[in-house]
Structure formats: C-alpha cells, structure tokens
Amino acid sequence: MTLERGPRLAIDVGTVRVGLAASDPDGLVATPVETLRRDTAAAADVRRIVDEVVERGARVVYVGLPRHLSGAEGASAQAARAYAGVVARAIDPVPVHLVDERMSSVSAHRSMQQAGRPGRKQRSVVDQVAAVIILQTALDAERRAGERAGELVTA
C-alpha cells in the first residue's frame, strides 16, 4: 500500500494545554507547531486544530494515547479518546488515529533538560515537544508498515 503524500499533524492532549506538531509532505520529519490553551468551554483549541489541518492540507492527524506502562488505559487515555473523537468530527473526512504515547512527556522533559532549558520555561513548549515525539513515532511506524499508524477514530 502506498500512503497518500501530504503533511501529518500530531496532538499531545493535556488537561491545560494541547501541543501540536506537523510533518513535511513526505512524512519524514516532525517539527513543533504551537502550544494551545485547552478550551473546553468555547473549543477555541479545536477550531485552531481545524485551521491547521486546512492550512497545511493535512492527510491525517495523530492523537497521543497515554497508556500506563502496563498498556492499560486510565482516565488520561479516556480523555484523549474523547478529545480525538471531537477532533475527528471537526475535521471529517481527514482521518484521526490514536497512537500509543507512553513516555512521550517524560522523553520531552528529558530532552529539554538535556538542552539546558530551565523547568519554568519548559511548560510553554513541552507539549509541542511531546507532539513531535508522538508524530515522529507515527511517521517511523508508517514507513515500517506502509500504512497509517495506530487506531482509527470514527467520526
């Protein structure tokens, strides 16, 4: 199977912030886009994601699914699933896939510490870095399998 060429987006869903990352059209490299304030009342964050999908011509959106190390799903995973459903309905027919993001936030914090970024300044970009890790993992899985990574979310 040949994957349709085009940018991909990734979302790291948090309770306060949402990180966005995007790829190049060939799906080789993930780069940070921005950190959005989570807006459960007015859904401004979802509208911004819709804008990014349209502006970039995204072919798929990956949403990180935060499982426990055991693989079990807790409250955070259920919240990510619900958020992915909202995004899927908002960007239909662009597909949304959930991808395992175990340790992406831990890896993001670690890489920022190694880069010498102080803890207080990490908050503003850690979600973007986590989204980059989620997206790069999905891109690598796409190349290995020749198909979209993760679990398709129905709109």
Automatic annotation (TrEMBL):
InterPro entries tied to this protein: RNaseH-like_sf, YqgF, YqgF/RNaseH-like_dom, YqgF/RNaseH-like_dom_sf
Domain YqgF/RNase H-like: 6-108
Record keywords, A-Z: Cytoplasm, Hydrolase, Nuclease, Ribosome biogenesis
Known EC number: 3.1.-.-
SMART domains, sorted: YqgFc
Localization (cell): Cytoplasm
Gene3D superfamilies documented for this protein: YqgF/RNase H-like domain
GO cellular component terms attached to this protein's record: cytosol
Signal peptide: none
Superkingdom per UniProt: Bacteria
GO MF entry, a single one: nuclease activity
GO biological process: rRNA 5'-end processing
CDD domains: YqgF (cd16964)
Family the UniProt entry places it in: Belongs to the YqgF HJR family.
Task of the protein: Could be a nuclease involved in processing of the 5'-end of pre-16S rRNA.
Protein name: Putative pre-16S rRNA nuclease
Organism whose genome encodes this protein: Luteimicrobium xylanilyticum
Lineage, broadest ranks: Bacteria, Bacillati, Actinomycetota, Actinomycetes, Micrococcales
Name of the gene: ruvX
